Automatic annotation (TrEMBL):
The keyword 4Fe-4S is assigned to this record: no
Gene Ontology terms for molecular function: hydrolase activity
Record-linked InterPro entries: AB_hydrolase_fold, LYPA1-2/EST-like, PLipase/COase/thioEstase
Name of the featured protein: Dienelactone hydrolase family protein
Record-stated family: Belongs to the AB hydrolase superfamily. AB hydrolase 2 family.
PANTHER family according to UniProt: LYSOPHOSPHOLIPASE-LIKE PROTEIN 1, LYSOPHOSPHOLIPASE-RELATED
Annotated ranges, domain Phospholipase/carboxylesterase/thioesterase: 22-215
Amino acid sequence: MSTESASTTIDPDAVMWSASESDRQGRPLLVLMHGYGSHEGDLFGLAPSLPLEPVIASLRAPHAAPWPLDGWSWFTAGTDDGPRRDHVNDSADAVIAWLDSLTVTPTSVGLLGFSQGGAMVAQLMRRDPKRFAYGLVMSGFITPGEEPGDAELAESKPPIFWGRGTGDEVIAESAIVRTTDWLPTHSTLSGRIYEGLGHGINQQGVADARAFIERNL
């Protein structure tokens, strides 16, 4: 194991939960992962607009974002070619290790992430295809390279939602093309392009996310 991997962990004390430990028994889990330079409280604000059945856990990314950002990141921003694969996988494996450490085992696990967190959704499903029931990639992308789970995903085609705005100038065009090519062959894809939306999630996106989750519980 690399030094980077050994030091990359999810802080359990920073996780925001929608239910107490005693209320998590026998329920599905929805894991939220924020974007670059943000924090665990960001997407947790969506909780009232999402289905009530899943327990929601909003994670803090394991790395401090570089100055002047006052937040956290899943991996360094990288280039148009994408982030370094080992950095993305260190964080993905940290999330899997955190899931393994839970004292209450959920009945299923779904993923929802924004931007970098959306890239993490796909990478987690590529790292451990059998673990996750569905994923929502909000203004996110597929990272470059091949993963051992890709072949299995091409067979099982788990449900994935990909939503993005026509006005998003943050995600590189090369990443959009890569994602457009990859998702239809490795998932049962539901997608929506939001006219005029920049790098964000609008009310229609939240409604679409809720409907997608409800269909896949």
